[in-house]
Amino acid sequence: MEKTVARNIVKGGGFLFNHSHFSEIFIPEEFNDEQKMMANATQDFIDKEVLPYVERIDALEEGLMPSILSKAGNLGLLGVNIPEQYGGLGMSFNTGMLIADIIASTGSFTTAFGAHTGIGTLPILYYGDETQKEKYLPKLSSGEWKACYCLTEPDSGSDANAAKTKAVLSEDQQNYLITGQKMWISNAGFADLFIVFAKIEDDKNLTAFIVEKSFGGITMNDEERKMGIKGSSTRQVFFNDTKVPVENMLSNRQNGFKIAVNILNIGRIKLGCGVINACKQIASQSTNYANDRKQFGVSISSFGAIKQKLSQMASKTFAIESASYRAGQNIDDQVDVLMAQGHPEDIAKLKGVEQFAIEAAIIKVYGSDVLNEIADQGVQIYGGMGFSEEAPMARAYRDARIAKIYEGTNEINRMLLVGMIIKKITKGEFNLAEELDFFKTGMNHENAFVSASLSKEYKAVKDLKKATLMIMGKALEGYGSKINEEQEVLINISEMVIETYVAESTLLRTLKLIDQSGEASAELFINLTKLYLFDAVRKSKNAGYEALACMIDEDTHLDSLLTVMDQLTAYNHVNTSRLSRDIAEEMILQNKFPYTLYS
Ligand SMILES: Cc1cc2nc3c(=O)[nH]c(=O)nc-3n(C[C@H](O)[C@H](O)[C@H](O)COP(=O)(O)OP(=O)(O)OC[C@H]3O[C@@H](n4cnc5c(N)ncnc54)[C@H](O)[C@@H]3O)c2cc1C
Predict the structure, then answer these.
(1) CA–CA distances in Å: residue 500 to residues 36, 41, 269, 460
(2) 8: pLDDT confidence band, cut at 50, 70 and 90?
(3) What superfamily does domain 1-427 belong to in CATH?
(4) Whose C-alpha lies nearest to ligand 1, atom 31?
(5) 148-184 pLDDT per residue, tens
(6) Closest residue CA from atom 25 of ligand 1
(7) Residue 348 C-alpha to ligand 1 middle, in angstroms?
């Protein structure tokens, strides 16, 4: 059985308004033996069953992807979060995140795996009735059946609820006849089961259906010719009076949009976490290449410009890893609380994720952005070879790009996450005015436990929160309920919120590591934290300035806010080249990403 650890329960988005102690957060170094065993088994599967076949997968070799998914099913990897009674392993949310992290190194397979286990399976797990769960989940968990999720249409992408696909009740009232066109459907080419969103009559909202391929009336276009993840099946799917028994409606009529949104919350956080191993792999390959490649008579890894890139790769990977598992455990803890309060398991799990929808969006945006940055740096380190299909970076670069587009584009997620925080403020769940009191009381920083080597970072994170809330407060004051129309401001605020959460998660993880094993053995992590913090503060400062610049007009004078902004983002004492060199030296020595969590 997995070990559960009692922790204080925090609210989703609460990180902006409270300061957590490091003892309250989970760090990936705390995975238990069973979780480490799962991680190793997954890595072994990837090494043997996926990585040797990437070229054949990318060539869309007939039958290959579904056969690999079936093998994953045999090992239990498709049912990690499905309860044992439906053929799954019934493991925790964070264990599911861990599996998503390791699967991440596989490009096209990552998408096929995510579409099947996430958006394809979870609507049934969380919204299916008992008969539907018993009928479908064992088949999906074992990999006997493969699933896909049909929401997007040619004219409805981000605006998903505008879908036009229709479901018409048959005269004998036994079936719905579904007609419409879906687009960009991952796994469509080999799926046995389709989760389909359609509108009944003139309903405002979508309704979800479980559609078996065997129901008939389903045709498809050829595979899309894509920029990346070329081995993932992506097709347009046409439903032509597809006869779906009424008992295959998921949940209630018009509940489909809610299902889509809630399932995407889960997809999102797993997508964000599901970049970690890809980042580590790119960092390891880049280090190895940089050590081997000689120019001007020396390895290119000896150049500061290369070290700078390697160290950035490591610090940002450390950061997304810290944030992902902190949030994953928050969800597990919340689920435990809800179950203890008497909620059934499936409802508790759904509500647990919903509570951390802000963090889920943060992790999606940050993870996908970081993967893209790291892949870009990887190409650069490889030089001309980075542009060649003979080396691994071209594929990594192409495969990374989609993460910023699906599961809600990053723009939509950015606005969503700020919108959710504002909603919580408006509903009185968080008190912005009280937090902004620091303007009246001065800018003191109360003392809390801090390690000597990270005291400035502790202050920097607190100041980031203040800076973020200050800009949010100013925007709310200026725009009131019309703030949603000010997307340029919201996007900049989202940058500050994201950097604040990730920075705090990174700092707290390192403080916990220092507490557990002392400063000397945590030296690498201290360096990673400082380097990351420098970047986070710089980005937040730029975003804050830009948000304020959006608000300037003849009557609005923002000089005092800009001065406060400067004070709150004055984390400038670190020598970044020294940090960068220290981190990179460690990578160069090990010839790979600088630390290992499980072996
Ligand atoms: C490879 C791949 C696999 C996919 N797999 C699936 C799948 O399995 N199932 C499925 O249902 N869908 C899938 N999708 C679809 C994917 O979810 C959509 O592409 C995505 O939601 C964006 O929708 P869109 O392409 O219509 O872009 P649009 O919504 O047209 O967006 C275009 C641009 O406008 C911006 N934009 C849109 N609305 C706003 C707004 N209100 N404010 C500000 N900016 C806005 C977007 O951020 C984006 O930059 C997949 C897509 C791809 C490419």
Answers:
(1) 29, 34, 17, 10
(2) low
(3) Butyryl-CoA Dehydrogenase, subunit A, domain 3 (1.20.140.10)
(4) 158
(5) 999 999 999 999 999 999 999 999 999 999 999 999 9
(6) 157
(7) 29
